Amino acid sequence: MSLPVRATVTARVAAVTPKGDEGLLVEFLRVYRESVQLVVDEIWGLDETPSWTELHVMFYSRLIRMGFRAHHVSEIYKRAKEVVESTKKNNGSKPILKKLTARIHTLDYKLDLDKKTLRVAVLHGKWVELKLEWYSYLNKYLDGSWKPGEIIVSYRCGRFYVYITFHRDVVPREPQAIMGVDLNFNNITYTIINLNSELVSIGVIPFRGLSRALHLRKLAEDLQRKCPRNWRFLKWARRIRARWLNKAKNILVDVDVLVEVAREYNAVIVFEDLEKIKENNNGGKRFSWMKPLWCYRRIQKYTEYKALLEGIKTIYVNPAKTSKKSPNGKKIRFINYRFVELGDIITSRDVVASWNLALRGLKRMRDSRVTWSPDSPRNEAVKTRAKRGNPEAEKYLKTFTATHK
To answer: What share of the chain has pLDDT > 70, as a percent?
Structure first.
């Protein structure tokens, strides 16, 4: 039986304070920011970042005298340490904090989900109550399976925002198949094999999200290029740029169908590990703008999160030469940049790539050599995706149900 895995989601909610309490909360956020900056300034010049115990000895008494509670102080340590370590890792200069933001421990707030109110502990033992502007989609986190964790309170542009973290434990499924996924500019190709490396199904999902998202990203960059010095100070430029970038991000999360297919076959999802995509110069400058990692990574991470909620595992493998190597032991001959002849069957390089990804995912799961199965009972590379309720998919669902009764 697999051990439970924690799934976490963060919801942003606008909040309103009663008249008279707004100043208390703003003052708390200001002092919190200055305290984090104080810790950052004093540990920045040290050769090694102090441990939590060393930070406690150095700053606890001073911060308590400023009116913070004990858990406020521990969150200040944590935040300052994270800022220093991440900045030094990226070879940056000493960070200067500007945002009025505070991370609040679970013991320093009281959340009433029925009345949609939040009480936050501030300086000198005082509490401030916030009225949350609730949204209907957040009701799914009130069914009892999700538990609230730490929160973040932020103040900007004259408004308060609360970021509430919910978490729950998910029991991973025992996989019955492996699904290799190849992301392309005009489609998403997947290949499903069973645990004996036999081909189960191949499918192509029309998807132009990558090209649309990159087009919007390019529009935003062109706008910055036209106004290189003053776009940040032009309200219309900031608004249009933010609209284009937010639309690009939202396009890349519309891939729920991958999780549906994985759930149908109870399959592990195998993605390409694209850490070095920028170093790949195939296509030259003409296609260089099409290779930023963020767009691929956003699709992968969102799919990984949605799969986690279903108990489906996601793994990453090295994609090198996956579109050039025969996945079933038969001779492969390249017809053009898109199509290949695999044995006596003509198929696309996307199918070959997704098939090899699935095989590499199976090999990684087993940590042993994979046995090829060229004599699969189905016609390799031409089998379309099975419809809902077909015997092929039901076989894997029945196996999963039987093992979890």
So the answer is: 85
